[in-house]
Write a structure and sequence with these properties.
globular, alpha+beta, 3 helices, 132 residues, two-stranded antiparallel ribbon, three-stranded antiparallel sheet
């Protein structure tokens, strides 16, 4: 699956589109109040990527295990020290409610942690190339 994200910004205009396997969706992300740039920073979006991936993967893995879950809350955080420096101390936690025992939910969370693509991408590292 190919995934892309596109951002266009100019004074008082900010448009974001994401696409997976040819299916595009517009996202509502505000521009900066000053008129130039995004009102959301990359670190926030990276944390959102961790949370979103884990949420979706919990539902996927629960379905595979024939578990019914009804509510998922995921909170992700990271720290950034100085401009140009990579983030560190990436953490996330999940709360899951459904028709399963506490032990089943705990096992589901631990298992999903091993198969979540965004988490594994950060854990293993990946090259990032500027295309000119």
């Amino acid at each position: 699956m190919k995934v892309t994200a596109k951002l266009e910004n100019h004074f008082n205009y900010h448009a974001v589109t994401v696409e997976s396997d040819g299916v595009a969706r517009d996202l509502s992300i505000p521009g900066k109040v000053a008129g130039l740039g995004s009102g959301v920073n990359g670190g926030e979006l990276l944390c959102l990527a961790l949370a979103t991936c884990f949420c979706n993967d919990l539902y996927r893995e629960a379905h595979r295990q024939a578990l019914v879950i009804r509510r998922v809350t995921v909170e992700a955080s990271a720290e950034f020290s100085a401009e140009g420096q990579p983030g560190y101390n990436f953490q996330y936690k999940a709360e899951v409610e459904g028709e399963a025992t506490d032990e089943q939910i705990a096992a589901l969370i631990r298992h999903t942690d091993t198969v979540s693509e965004i988490q594994n991408t950060l854990r293993r590292g990946s090259s990032v190339t500027l295309v000119e």
